[in-house]
Design brief:
Shape of chain B: elongated
Distance between the termini of chain B: 48 Å
Order of helices and strands of chain B: HEEEEEE
Distance between the termini of chain A: 30 Å
Largest sheet of chain A: 10 strands, mixed
Structural class of chain A: alpha+beta
Number of helices of chain B: 1
Number of helices of chain A: 14
Radius of gyration of chain B: 23 Å
Number of strands of chain A: 16
Strand content of chain B: 25-35%
Shape of chain A: elongated
Strand order of the largest sheet of chain B: 2-3-4-6-5
Structural class of chain B: alpha/beta
Strand content of chain A: 15-25%
Largest sheet of chain B: 5 strands, mixed, barrel
Radius of gyration of chain A: 31 Å
Oligomer: heterodimer
């Protein structure tokens, strides 16, 4: 106990270098755990985006690509699925429910998605949670739109406001002859739905009635009332979400869709595609983790260097300890104790810094990148990692401690100083 | 003196703990039945099947799912038993980054030359302690209550399920 107090006092007397060393360790630990929290946050946020959907199908491309454009609105579809194929697949006995989606247009940077009103019942996120309306409700009129929470907040939209849908994902040619009305605003979900404008499939069809060959026919604009009377069966959709009657039929249905003869289609299990995505992203994640682990290691080496260089200026301190009866092993223990104390202080400060930063940047990251970082206590794995760091920190000080042990056998006790 | 007293107390305590553990063990932990995937194919479905009536395999012929009656048969022999079976995870539902619902399959990445695994080679697993999936190619042991339940479809498709499963890495 006395030794511990001596160690503390000794550290206090060198407070500037010690504080800097602790701060270095703390920053490195904050970085390591920050990278880890972001990784877990990103994974959770992705995995939480789709739930209770058994299969997704679209034009044949890659599994990850189909998942990304249909669920996360990242990237684009290679092709459409004809309405007839969609009907045929949906009529199969294994299918319990199906929700088609149609992508391709946008509104001021936010994607516009055409779907059926069943989407609001069937789309589930974060372990089966349903979409809820903050205001208004699903579309009733042809030109009604439902907007996500981020769209409403960023563009300051309220129920009844007009929205003009642009043709394409960013464009100068807008569907300005057919403005939509905001009919509903969804609650914040933490998923890409927040950044989506949802309209009916028929509406997507309607705004393209006057378009031919990729451009609007000059001067031609069918009035909204005429469009409302028209039969607007979509010709094609981008992708569809499916639910099966029995989970054991998933593979059968998937195979049947993949082998559909009239059109090249691809069906994926969202969970599997997600896992494939992790396997791709995993390499980058490992690289990031390795870099931050190296930073922690560098900080610990820095501490070792600091203890080493301190030995010289502490010769007198050691000599006094020796002269009042401290054994060389006591000196050894003292140095180990100092290193352990510094590592521990670094860990505590590092975790404090991490949570403070997390707490501050969380809303910003959520708003900017749609990445929801949970403020959770450290889990078992993280505690283990901290344990490893604490032990490593103590162990790296063995080298300077051995040197101090050697020196203190004779050094400073002789007359020559 | 003190040391001896403490030692004897420690020994008696250890014996007591061991005794209690021995007595309660058979009741607390039901030793699971080890199953292999072949066990899940009922006797009645094990007769030899004619491989191909024409004798030739045409390109794409085998890939279309054939309604194979014998493959849809399930055994009810293990219903209600706690069983342990190795397999691969095809994830269906997640809580955070952990898998809560999945299909357990005997092989991963169904070969494109044959139809997907038949109903009696799939197990639908729901787990109470979610499993952190390391990858699609991670073999696991699943232990849990086994059931061959007819799922509620007009096709009367049957299949296996394991509930309240414990998942551990396969070694």
């Amino acid at each position: 106990m006395i030794l511990f107090r001596v160690a503390m006092r000794s550290l206090l007397s060198r407070r500037i270098t010690v504080a800097l060393t602790i701060f270095t360790i703390a920053l490195s630990i904050a970085l390591l755990f920050g990278v880890d929290k972001t990784r877990v946050g990103a994974r959770t946020s992705f995995a939480d985006t789709i739930s209770d959907t058994d299969l997704i199908f679209g034009a044949r491309s890659g599994g990850v690509q189909l998942l990304l454009y249909s669920v996360f609105r990242i990237g684009n579809a290679t092709n459409n699925v004809s309405w007839q194929s969609y009907q045929e697949i949906v009529d199969r006995p294994e299918v319990e429910w199906a929700v088609p989606i149609s992508l391709g247009d946008s509104h001021r940077g936010y994607r516009v998605m055409g779907t059926t009103s069943e989407y609001f019942d069937r789309y589930r996120y974060r372990g089966g949670r349903q979409l809820e309306f903050a205001q208004g409700g699903p579309f009733t009129d042809l030109f009604d739109a439902v907007i996500g929470a981020d769209v409403a907040r960023a563009l300051d939209y309220n129920i009844g406001d007009d929205i003009i849908v642009a043709h394409g994902l960013a464009s100068f040619s807008a569907h300005d002859d057919h403005p939509f009305k905001v009919a509903g605003i969804l609650e914040k979900t933490g998923t890409p739905v927040d950044r989506t404008v949802i309209v009916s499939l028929e509406a997507i069809e309607a705004i393209h009635v006057d378009w031919q060959g990729g451009a609007q026919i000059l001067g031609q604009s069918t009035s909204a009332d005429v469009l409302r009377q028209m039969k607007l069966t979509p010709k094609a959709i981008t992708a569809a979400m499916l639910g099966v009657n029995s989970k054991l039929q998933i593979f059968q249905l998937q195979r049947a869709i993949n082998e559909y003869r009239n059109e090249p289609l691809l069906a994926i299990l969202p969970g599997v595609a997600l896992q494939e995505l992790w396997e791709i992203v995993g390499v980058a994640e490992t690289a990031l983790a390795a870099v931050s682990a190296m930073v922690v290691f560098t900080a610990l080496i820095g501490m070792m260097a600091m203890i080493f260089s301190g030995l010289n200026e502490r010769r007198r301190e050691m000599a006094i300890l020796r002269s009042i009866g401290a054994r060389p092993t006591t000196v050894f223990t003292l140095l180990m104790m100092e290193a352990a104390a510094m590592t521990l202080a670094g860990i505590i400060l590092g975790i404090a810094i991490l949570y403070t930063i997390l707490w501050i940047v969380r809303p910003i990251i959520d708003a900017r990148f749609g990445l929801y970082l949970p403020l959770e206590a450290l889990d078992l794995r993280e505690w283990k990692l901290l344990g490893v760091i604490a032990v490593t920190g103590t162990l790296v000080s063995i080298a300077p401690a051995i040197r101090a042990y050697r020196l203190s056998l004779a050094d400073g006790m002789s007359v020559r100083m | 003196m003190y040391g001896v007293k403490r030692l004897s107390r420690l020994i008696s305590l250890t014996i007591m703990v061991l005794l209690v553990a021995m007595i309660t063990r058979p009741f607390a932990v039901e030793i699971p039945t080890e199953l292999s995937w072949a066990d899940l194919i009922p006797e009645s479905a094990r007769e030899m099947q004619p491989i191909s009536p024409t004798g030739t395999v045409l390109h794409g012929q085998l890939t279309t799912p054939v309604p194979d009656i014998s493959a849809a048969k399930v055994t009810r022999e293990y219903n209600g038993q706690t069983i342990r079976i190795p397999g691969f995870i095809v994830p269906l539902e997640f809580t955070g980054s952990k898998v809560t619902e999945f299909l357990l399959v005997p092989y991963i990445g169904a070969c494109i030359h044959v139809p997907p695994p038949p109903a009696n080679q799939l197990i639908f697993v729901t787990s109470e302690n979610p499993h952190e999936l390391k990858g699609l190619f991670e073999p696991v042991y699943v232990t849990g209550m086994f059931g061959a339940a007819a799922s509620t479809t007009e096709l009367a498709e049957v299949g296996y399920e394991i509930t309240a499963a414990n998942i551990e890495p396969y070694e």
